Amino acid sequence: MKRVLVVDDSLSVGRQLEKIISDSGDFISVGHAKNGAEAIKMNHTENPDIICMDMNMPGMDGLTALRSLVVLDKEVKVVMVTSLGGVGDKFTEALKLGAKNVISKPFETDNVLQILREL
Predict the structure, then answer these.
(1) Domain count, the chain
(2) 107: closest CA among 8, 33, 30, 26?
(3) Domain extent at residue 109
């Protein structure tokens, strides 16, 4: 099973994504970080196969964390999570910075799992 780290400042959104991941049978959630700085620390301690990270968070946002993660680990697999309203330029920027894909909120279970299985 692939290990997934969920990064979202919203506890309810994080739990929703963790449930999709855990119920799939293909993935296991190894933790929930509340911002980019926690994600960087937990990537080091938990060694996840995939990081699902919200783009907009207080403290360190997802794009800033993505920049650091890619520098620290060239093989890191990050999928950015965003609400439909904020995709546009940030979607393109995330992919240029090294994100593997983008998942939109509200989550569609089949879509989330398909994206994760492709990594």
Answers:
(1) 1
(2) 8
(3) 2-117
